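As a warm-up, study this chain.
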Amino acid sequence: MELRKRRGTDEAENEAPSSVQPTRKENHADDKYNVSELRGSFWLTRIVFIRCLGFVYFVAFLVALNQNGPLLGSRGLLPVPLYLQRVRQQIGTDNNWSLFSVVPTLLWWVEPQDMDVTLDIVAWCGLGLSSVMMLCGSCNVVISAILWLLYHSLVNVGQRWYSFGWESQLLETGFVAIFLSPVLSLRQLPRHTPTHPAIIWGYRWLLFRIMMGAGLIKLRGDQCWRDLTCMEYHYETQPVPNPLSYYLHHMPTIIHTLETFGNHFVELVAPLLLFLPRPFNIAGGLIQISFQVILIVSGNLSFLNWLTILPSIFCLDDAFLSCLFSMDTKRRVVGIKRSEQKGHHPWGYYVRHVSGWMLALLLGYLSVPVVMNLFSSRQLMNTSFDPLRIVNTYGAFGSVTKQRTEVIIEGSRENAGGGQTWLEYEFKCKPGNVTRRPCWISPYHYRLDWLMWFAAFQRYQHNPWLIHLVAKLLKGDKDVISLLSHDPFPNIPPRFIRARHYLYHYASPGSSEAMKGQWWTRELIGDYLPIVTINSLQPILRDQGWDNT
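Now compare it with the structure written out below.
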């Protein structure tokens, strides 16, 4: 009896583990299966992308909040009310919807006296909504569409301040993102909202055009790109250098040659990897991300390089990015994919697929003039062929400035004469004082500093806003002065202002200038703007409509 009882117990014990052990094996197999199941899906990729897009939007609207008043406000350097008035006169209608179809901006419905408050409201709304994306890692159609429309409203009235390629690039990136999320839900993993193939390939197509456009414009542009010598000048003459730019400039010539060659490989060869099978497009995406990181640390190019990383993210699937997420999140993704395989979907799932293919058709149709431009011998860069800027052309540094010149604005309270004392205005980030260390601001952006770089190799007649800037300084305008780093006349504005033209070079390491703490040396070229007073500028201000601003 004792033996039989014991045998029964042993059989029961052996039977119990046999019912549990398969479950353990099954769970262990599920863990392995979860990782492999993530290949080729983009649920986790979408979370990473939305956070990054929210970050770029946040920076863009932060720049707008801090600078749009003195740049675009009713008393700004290029006032929006005056610009909209001129557009109305040019188009010849007061119908706001007709005007919106030509210049898409919500500001058509804003009274001139309310413009400054509205510009701030637009910026604050953009900051709030982009914060949701950045912090939550989720978004919906409503938030994406509002952000896109708000930034459109700024870009289309931004005039010279918003005339650069990254503005259209952000709008194109933001437009495709509208199709990325559910209509109202803010769940990170909305069960019935997969990432449509049109979105994945749409972003890869955007990345291809950005890089190929930049590469081709270089080959067709400056001879130094073909001679592999452009990088010998770039770090010194780029719009807004940072501290590392100084040291990169002084690297050996052979390094600069290899940099230029590497640039051509990244922009002209590596983009072809984006359309190949998974291992190749992952490699292509990583190459582009690495390239943008190098550009970020070597200069202050606004949020352009941060923005260009975004479409590269869609070269990386969930399996590649899984290390960034918890096991629970990865299991949830596998659960969603398994339910998809069963084929039980609500009607909204099919509407999502239809809208995705409609997006593909739209992007294909709007890409026709872009592709024609890309392969044209007269290639244009940073151009839009439709008012909504859905598909655009891109390019950067088709020509490289060989010498750096700077416009230095000086003021004086003394009567004109040989004994005048002139004091310099200092900008936030552009080179001025030779002993000031170059700034590091990327992804933030100082729009006035950027345009001062362009003004330096043009004449002031090509930049009427510069005359308005000088007039504001003569009036002691506090809003415009807030765009500067140092005002030498904090209490009483100057009576006279002039602008002088200087040639700047990096101080050589170990030189006497460097030993004195100088980052730059400079040599006077001559006068850029002759001595002016507020009275002498009145005719120009009246002609431009700025006499009351």
